[in-house]
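In practice, a research group might receive sequence data for several interacting partners and want a quick structural hypothesis before committing to experiments. The following worked case mirrors that situation: the sequences arrive first, and a predicted assembly follows.
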Amino acid sequence: MKKEVVTLKKLSQILDLSTSTVSRALNDHPDISAATKEKVKNLAKKMHYVPNIFAKGFRQHKTNIIGVIVPNITHYFTTTMVRGILEEAAIKGYRVIISESNNDIAKQTEMLNTMLQFGVDGMLVSLTKMTREIDDVLETLNKLPLILFDKVSSKIPCTQVTINDEQAAFDAVEHLINIGKKRIAIIKEQDFSYTSQKRFAGYLRALKENNIEVDEKLIMSVDDITLENGKQMTSHLLSIKHPPDAIFAITDSAAVGVIQTLKKFNIKIPETIAVVGFSNSRLSTVIEPNLTTIDQPGETIGKNAVKHLIEEIETKSVTISNKMIEIKGALIIRDSTFKA
Amino acid sequence: MKKEVVTLKKLSQILDLSTSTVSRALNDHPDISAATKEKVKNLAKKMHYVPNIFAKGFRQHKTNIIGVIVPNITHYFTTTMVRGILEEAAIKGYRVIISESNNDIAKQTEMLNTMLQFGVDGMLVSLTKMTREIDDVLETLNKLPLILFDKVSSKIPCTQVTINDEQAAFDAVEHLINIGKKRIAIIKEQDFSYTSQKRFAGYLRALKENNIEVDEKLIMSVDDITLENGKQMTSHLLSIKHPPDAIFAITDSAAVGVIQTLKKFNIKIPETIAVVGFSNSRLSTVIEPNLTTIDQPGETIGKNAVKHLIEEIETKSVTISNKMIEIKGALIIRDSTFKA
DNA sequence: CTGAAAGCGCTTACAG
DNA sequence: CTGAAAGCGCTTACAG
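A structural hypothesis for the assembly, expressed as tokens:
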């Protein structure tokens, strides 16, 4: 199965040069004459020489591998970020190792450790929902460059790349206000979720700036922001004394559940109750009426995260960089609300 | 940034043993006394010793990395396979490097090569659609264990894991026949797509076994089986002299396009035209009417592929294994057809 | 401009 | 049961 492998040594024997020279020629070292370089490179190409990355990495304490941890790889939005990460990393000559934490803190910790042991040059982490428990991330951060993306936490002192959740949520809710809605419900996650917190903050600010009073009865918090929970919360919202005239679900999945339930009860969308989601997932143009939502540029987020990580890896700056990079999300208005 | 790292040497100095002994103790070599083992292991744990995987891999010509290449990582079905791969690989102590070929032959070739150079122990490949050009895959197969999954090709002599496309398509079409449909159209890809070929074969067999004549006018072939193409082909099918009374689209996306177009023309589903898709994607329960489709157990496929690959890696058997593993898909009947 | 030699951290055949 | 030594394939400070 294993075919004989071409090494530096073999090349050097054939060319009657030392391995040092061959190595330097291949790496374009300025000391080497142009003639030698060409000779070496030609032979290398002819013999399909590929450097043994492990010997190289071992020698240089560098693996050119980036570790990525995401909570759930089956989310469409996550895959768009992953795509951006893969693309940008490939361009810069890095490989990517991906793991899924399944929103499980213990699993996340285990992954941080195995990636560490594996010798990745840096890590890109999208946190589990339990952002309270960040000790292990902090510890990892002490050992190598680490950047948070998408699911981030202000409690971790490192560069973070995310969409501007607060502003995007603000835009979504203000849009509802602009089309005349006054009793706007929100379906969000519990407060441990940083993303949910920020979107909720945007919701509150939009109400406040438009002098609409907050009604606690319209604020639904669930453990897990799924389609199913979207349905349940909607049923509940329909049963209260003064039901809402709009529902802002902080994910598209949940918003789809909202719409399905409203339709079940023959409630007019958006006339009686308007609906806004968040993500611009593929579901949003299949559900009827099509869902007004926030488009999140996943690829851009992924690429940005990689760029900053590689910068930190390659500059090896001891200064801890702690940038907050916010990528803009855009409100996309569809039939589940009105054009203002 | 870099903290002092604990090596075998350091441990051996502290314990006043040779590195050989420490190495063997850590690896549970039978020669080492239980007492020594315990002493060594305790210290290793206390000092948070982690072996340098690169030194190890370099030494043993083994990296414990599996390379994965998929055409498109944003497809939901693909992510479920990836999830299965990650899970199973982690259990067996392997890491996974993922790349996306974007259905581009040149990119796939490039990825095969960089993964090779990267020293992966084996590869899991889901082919681009252009399965005609397989030279590079064949060449890679000569150098290390490689297994095809999902998008496979009978022309490549290696183990392949896929769902039983032919039978699943047969079941789907026979279901249409059972509910009384006689003019069943298919929307498929061009013949270079192996998956499409197999599903088409199932379609043909179902017609044949039920004595239904094939009508070439009902066979639509597109370059790319997208939602948009599903729409276009449906418009076309509606315009022909004798339109179909059922449409089998070989992916859910296309089937969604079919349904959207039929609804636009106020055609009753399933009474006038029934629709079947393939994949059981999330769209299938959001589109209305809900889509009858084939459920593909992605995680099972992923896990199976990893299992077989690791077996090949670890047995290093020179015998080329060439198993065809077919995972069963299941027909899920929803409102876009009738219960038989 | 080129080469000899050391060393990265580990494993393992050989010796005792 | 333990150790000394070689070697995996590369890079690089040192020497010339």
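Before designing any experiment, note the following. Chain B has a mean pLDDT of 90. Chain B touches chain A through 46 residues (CB under 8 Å).
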